Amino acid sequence: xxxxxxxxxxxxRGDGSWTWRAAGAREPRGVVDATLLPDGAKVGEVLRxxxxxxxxxxxxxxxxxxxxxxxxxxxxxxxxxxxxxxxxLVTSSLVKGGRxxxxxxxxxxxxxxPDKRExPDKRExPDKREPPDRRERAERPERPRSAxxxxxxxxxxxxxxxxxxxLRPARVHRAAVLDExxxxxxxxxxxxxxxxxxxxxQAIDKENEARKxxxxxxxxxxxxxxxxxRLRPRLRTAEWRxxxxxxxxxxxxxxxxxxxxxxxxxxxxxxxxxxxALAAQLRESLAHRxxxxxxxxxxxxxxxxxxxxxxxxxxxxxxxPKAGTILEPALTTRLVDAASASLTAEAPADRxxxxxxxxxxxxxxxxxxxxxxxxxxxxxxxxxVRKYAGRVPLVAAAFGIEPVAVEARERPPRKRAPRKAVPPxxxxxxx
Length: 431
Fold this sequence. Notes:
- By secondary structure, the protein is α+β, with helices and mostly antiparallel strands.
- It contains twelve helices and seven strands.
- The strands form two sheets. It has a five-stranded antiparallel beta sheet, with no helix packed on it. Strands 6-7 form a two-stranded antiparallel sheet.
- The longest helix is centred in the last third of the chain and has 34 residues, at 273-306.
- The protein is elongated and about 100 Å long.
């Protein structure tokens, strides 16, 4: 969303662009095209800017000089009435006194007589009106500022990418297998479906603990475990078939991870001709999905680079739909140039941190080097470089920081249970 800020021009780069910083800030914040500057702009001038704030930083889309306020006093309501008349509305009379004629100042006796002293005209003065009450003026709604301010420049927004559907299989084949089993085998089958053979062992141990508390003899779980082993392949095939049919129904919309999991599970679950044919159909659909996702992924990276969104392009490059994908040399060069152009001396420390995080997990992390570095980097900037020094060696070398190799963690020695001492065989008697 665009909003207005006050910026100060710091330098003319000479290539058709100027550097700027927030008014009152210490370090430059970004670069603006010279075509947006008003006529007569100079270094140190403070302008009013329309800026867009997003993940890639602050983008200035318009500049204008700051208009000075004409008046500091509050606005007043002008009262317009009929034209003023030239006649005098206050009369005066000269009264003869003992010490000569006096002016319009009345004597003691004249002050007691209202007909002899000067008094204002009783006629109504239409041009003099009482000002509105202060309470009424406070309750009067003010004029909305949006009517005065220029609306922000609209910025085209990309439509949000729809989230893929998650796999929600039915339980048709699973229920059919459970219905075919005898009632006494069904609890064992449900435990196998819930947690495989370990769940059956836990159920047996729990039952034996309950029997022990009641004083009953424990059950031998050997036959139950053998039954669970026999039922396991059939139950797993039915469960996989439910997932496979649900995946094939929405093969173009479900999440690619769910589709891959179904195809991988087919190696052990597809045991007859029907399930093998279903597995082959799923493998073919997965191949088409991967190719389609790969093409869309490359298009999104190219679009992000064309629009100047380097951070988004780097983050997209770290999440390929197909594992082990190698980017084309032309696209790799564009990613390296976009990342290097974002790491300059004019970029603030928080911008360096965002770009370094995106570069550290991208396929071009070993070839990205900064275009320029600040002469006196801040502690925040140095901390960010040290954090990713092992993944971006060229950036670390530009700051004189040696990357520290991540040592592999040594696994603790495995504790083995002590072997039980086997008693020696009894001595044989000599014949």
